[in-house]
């Protein structure tokens, strides 16, 4: 079943044509890795799905982005409402300088939900889903700045999960972490796939190979190839994909 | 060549060292000077140097406090019985009065008989109280001197009256000025904080680049305007406005001072607040927006809390600017030395008093010292402000 789709996508930053005629679709409960050399448009593409690019003044989009068959860029869509239903995890852990609890509760609070029990339940559920609960359950009041970088990133994942997102976007979520923390995040992504649909940008090909069901290869604003990860890595149909994966460039 | 460079380096090192030494010494010197002059007020009798207050030896009154002496010379007390003496009316006497009692021939062409006549006078008038220079009194003078208690710190701080030149005993009570200063400052902040924060938030978070690039120089210009110009502006615009709006007899009021000072504190508050709002990392704002928070929710829940210490610093430095400001306030608050009980009455502030009176106070005299003591009070205010800023900064660093 298709969860999200990009149809005939073209993106410009001013005169710069950043994404060129891209068509992709993403299955429910799958992990899709977006790979490609730096500057090829992976983040731009990812951020189409929660309309974060709209913050950039000279950003322009043509084409159709849908999640659950809803056109994200139609006039009826309110951007902040939309963002509440799409989770995003950034490259560097960026917890708020608040308590662990308040970080996870943030999405609910800005939604006007302040009921203690709902918050408590959601915080616990999200932290459990993010495999962080056991490590922080006795210190929920502690500042999020006091835990390790890897824990912070899982906290950011918990924060994104709290609002039960339709889609989770991750932009190189492990690139700032040590190998052990990275492994934990990868494990977590594997677990999350059972209940969520995930798009993840990564520059780490091994990682893409380990965690993703599908892989899309971007090159200079174009989507060169999109297929099952197995096939992409063992038997890519495009020569440029082959070159990239075998490390001949990028 | 190498040796040559070494000499130059040593020389530069020496210059840098002596510059910093001179700077530190200057600061220390100023503080020492301020305190030496100011504290002198508290070790001296409130009577002008060399002068004495004396009563007849027959007079049973041995001691008077400063307030009693003041009351006597203001003729609020006219009978000795009011201060524990006999039922006898009080005769006030200062040196100039001598001619009312003795002819010029009796005093001699060069007043050489003045000491003798002063003695004669006190003998002849047991109800007299004299305020004269001690140098003019003869040996074996027939009066006894009234010792007046030295000015105490609490008289100075809590005294209600500031009559620095009244004879024989001036009053150096600065309570009205402390209240005046605090009230003007408070008013300025009530006005400048909301306006300053709103402008800073607008500039940092709402306005687009073009508007911001227009506003920023305007705010900076505001900081560069000399304070006398603010005073003029206050006098010509704010004072009449206040007068008309509240239907007052005079427009020179605490409120007028507050508004002018508020405007003067705005650039400090705006610039520092804006800078600190801008230090909020983009990644935090993005995290908030990505969770569906609106721009306002992000501002209130992320940006402002993040900039909290910067905002507090801005406000406190704004207070600092307001509290030490002189000219503008002098011009628009009316400079009345009563304790202000509302924003709509005249008042005076500490810096305004110093500026207005230092020129007329004789060097080294009581009045002069009292003004320096006022300077100490102001200095302590600003020290407290600076320590508060440091405290907040340190606290921020720890979290
Ligand atoms: N705000 C922007 N304004 C102009 N150009 C941008 C902006 N953001 C990204 N770009 C350009 O768009 C291209 C794609 O960027 P990005 O999506 O971040 O690539 P990736 O994530 O694959 O490294 C890059 O060439 C980058 O320079
Ligand atoms: Mg990127």
Structure in words:
- The complex is a heterodimer of chains A (250) and B (399).
- Chain A has a six-stranded mixed beta sheet.
- The longest helix of chain A has 14 residues, at 116-129.
- The model of chain A has no long low-confidence stretch (mean pLDDT 94).
- Chain A is of the alpha/beta class and 250 residues long.
- Chain A has ten helices and ten strands.
- Chain A has a single domain, classed as Rossmann fold (3-Layer(aba) Sandwich).
- In chain A, strand 4 (59-67) and strand 5 (70-71) form a beta hairpin.
- Chain B is mainly alpha-helical and 399 residues long.
- Chain B folds into two domains: 51-151, D-Maltodextrin-Binding Protein, domain 2; 175-398, MetI-like fold, CATH 1.10.3720.10.
- Chain B is built from 16 helices and six strands.
- In chain B, strands 2-3-1-4 form a four-stranded mixed beta sheet, covered by helices on one side. Chain B has a two-stranded antiparallel ribbon with strand order 5-6.
- In chain B, a hairpin with a 7-residue loop joins strand 5 and strand 6 (171-172).
- In chain B, helix 1 (2-39) packs across helix 16 and helix 8 (209-224) crosses helix 10 (254-278).
- Chain B is elongated, with a radius of gyration of 30 Å.
- The interface between A and B is medium-sized, with 30 and 18 residues.
- The site of magnesium ion has 4 residues of chain A, from helix 1.
Radius of gyration of chain B: 30 Å
Give the N-to-C terminal Cα separation of chain A: 33 Å
Quickly count the helices of chain A. 10
Q: What is the structural class of chain B?
A: mainly alpha
Q: Count the E strands of chain A.
A: 10
Q: Please state the second-level CATH architecture of chain A.
A: 3-Layer(aba) Sandwich
Gyration radius of chain A, in Å = 18 Å
Tell me the name of the CATH class of chain A.
Answer: Alpha Beta
Distance between the termini of chain B: 52 Å
